[in-house]
Amino acid sequence: MSSFFQLFMAWGLLMVFVLVLYVVDKVNVIYSGYAKPDLPKTFNDGLFGELTGKTLWDAMSGIPVAGSDAKLVSSLKPHYEPVLRQHIEQVFMEGYSHGRAGTAGVPTNNRIIPTPRGSLESWLPMHHLASIYQVGVDFAGRNPDDELRIQQSLDQVTSMIYARLGLDLTEAYSATLLIHPEEDTEDALLPPSEDALPALPVMASAVQAAGAASVSSAQVPLAQTTATDNSTSALQPDLSSLQAPAPVPNNESAYASNSKADEAKAVPA
């Protein structure tokens, strides 16, 4: 009986130990469920479901994707057009900024596009992306001879993308993208840099010297004429043609002269 009792006690202790471990594990699971760590919130556009990145492009371009309904994909195309437009505009502006900075490179296929419902990963083929990126780089060069070629290249590649997806392109991308930002035109209105400031006094002195030379050259003939006409250095005006104005008769003096003439006629000789 003693050995059986010892065996029974050993099995009982083992069961109690296992039960304690089970209870502790349950408590940890419940606590972790109520005390979640503060993780950064990630957004995802749930409108397209599992379609994202290259899978989304394949579905929109007509390639069958496992688990996606053709009718659902067709109904999502109008919602995909704003995502596609943002992707194209971002690649073009990236090429434009890299062209201005002189650091042209290669764009990436994937981009996170913001949407009203969150964000969505978009994917475009590299040959289309490279063409759009290069158009932005060329447009940053500001060469008037390349404007027509740049416009045709941009409209051609975007038309091919929309035709492959079966979307209607209502407005050409060249009408909205081939416009230089306003900060480029404002550079001409900015004050001169500090390097150009020392040159300003030199230019001002040159202008003053040129003005003084012109004034001196204009005074030389006048000095010569004064020296040849008279021995004196000053010009004397000719007053011979001028006559003194006739004096205005006074009314009182005229009246007195008339009265004296009348008296002289009245006295007999």
Could you please describe the fold and organization of this structure?
- It contains nine helices and two strands; from the N terminus they run αααββαααααα.
- The chain is mainly alpha-helical.
- 60% of the residues lie in helices and 4% in strands.
- Residues 39-43, 185-190, 215-235, 251-256 and 263-269 have low confidence and may be disordered.
- Strands 1-2 form a two-stranded antiparallel ribbon.
- Helix 3 packs parallel to helix 4 (126-140) and helix 4 (126-140) runs antiparallel to helix 5.
- The chain has a domain at 48-180.
- A hairpin with a 2-residue loop joins strand 1 and strand 2.
- The N and C termini lie far apart (204 Å).
Question: How would you summarize what this structure contains?
Answer:
The protein is mainly alpha-helical.
Key words describing this protein structure:
single chain, 269 residues, mainly alpha, two-stranded antiparallel sheet, 60% helix, 4% strand, elongated, disordered C terminus
What order do the strands of the largest sheet run in, or round the barrel if closed? 1-2
Query: What is Rg?
Result: 50 Å
**Helical proportion, percent range:** 55-70%
Continuous helix count: 9
β-strand percent reads under 5%
Please give the largest β-sheet. 2 strands, antiparallel
Low-confidence segments, given as residue ranges, are 39-43, 185-190, 215-235, 251-256, 263-269
> Which structural class best describes the helix and strand composition?
mainly alpha
Shape: elongated
Average pLDDT over all residues: 75
Count of beta strands: 2
Order of helices and strands: HHHEEHHHHHH
User: What is the terminal-to-terminal distance?
Assistant: 204 Å
